[in-house]
Amino acid sequence: MAHLLLGCAFSKVVLHAVLSRVGALCCMPRPSESLVVWLSNGARRLQRNVKAAQTLVNLSLWRIWKRRNACVFEGASLVVARLVEDIFVEADLWRAAGARQLDHPPPPSFSAP
Ligand SMILES: *[C@@H]1O[C@H](CO)[C@@H](O)[C@H](O)[C@H]1NC(C)=O
Question: Which residues form the signal peptide (predicted)?
């Protein structure tokens, strides 16, 4: 699990792209952190909007997991840019469905390029 979500290059690139887009690179996992430690500490490195960052991290991990399953079981391919776009589109849907913590930056605007 830790390798799939944190260790492998694809996951790292996706997380970097998502967190840099919202100005939250300080939340990136550190080499010394386990998955469990990172999940509880990563977003707290922000001074504010910790919940927004945590929600976005959780959403990103969920989408990475789902994309990997699609690769294994449906022959889908791993395309970083497409997955990052999907994550921000789904974040907009979560926000529209009432995820109020996503109203506050980060992310400033999910739809921004
Ligand atoms: C993110 O996931 C962690 C680990 O499952 C959980 O403890 C936390 O409550 C989640 N945070 C948000 C904002 O959904």
Answer: 1-34
